[in-house]
Amino acid sequence: MSNGVPAEAEALLTSEPLIAHFATSVEDRPHVAPVWYGYTENTIEVLTTGRKLANIRANPRVALSVQKDRGGRAQWAVTILGQATVIEDDEETEAAEARINPKYGADPSAWPENVLVRIDPGTVQYSTY
């Protein structure tokens, strides 16, 4: 169940294309990887495959952290703990690709092997510095 993303954190998450650090769990240990992400309707979307996807299928509890730096100094950070859902729908995946990939300068159909994962935020923390 989502607690919602505060408007201030939502503004930070949608301000510019930044890399998120996406944490999944494998054998009760964290697995963290950089990912592109999208934010829409109180949901984080990630397109992924491989180890991250296998981890989510085994344990849907995830974390996502996004931080904006300037000259090596943190400007703000948003951390989300939530539940991930694998979306096995081609049309929904293509729509997410059209939202996420161009945000980072890539063709919408790049990496067709990726699978859509939606994260329902449970706990959201954010700070500005």
Structure commentary:
The protein is an alpha+beta fold and 129 residues long. It has one domain: Roll (Pnp Oxidase, Chain A), CATH 2.30.110.10. It has a seven-stranded antiparallel β-sheet. Strand 1 and strand 2 form a beta hairpin. It is globular.
Mind sketching the topology for me?
Blueprint: H1 7-13, E1 20-26, E2 29-35, E3 38-40, E4 43-48, H2 50-58, E5 61-70, E6 73-87, H3 90-100, E7 115-128
Antiparallel strand pairs: 1-2, 1-5, 3-4, 4-7, 5-6, 6-7
Describe the structure concisely.
The protein contains three helices and seven strands. With 129 residues, it is α+β, with helices and mostly antiparallel strands.
Number of helices: 3
* Strand content bin: over 45%
Relative helix content = 10-25%
In CATH, what is the homologous superfamily?
Electron Transport, Fmn-binding Protein, Chain A
The helix/strand series, from N terminus to C terminus, equals HEEEEHEEHE
Uncertain spans: none
In total, the number of domains comes to: 1
Backbone shape:
globular
Please name the CATH architecture.
Roll
Task: Please give the number of β-strands.
Answer: 7
CATH structural class: Mainly Beta
Structural class: alpha+beta
Provide the gyration radius in Å: 14 Å
The order of strands across the largest sheet is: 2-1-5-6-7-4-3
Q: What name does the CATH topology carry?
A: Pnp Oxidase, Chain A
Sheet with the most strands, sense and barrel status: 7 strands, antiparallel
Mean pLDDT: 94
Amino-to-carboxy terminus distance = 29 Å
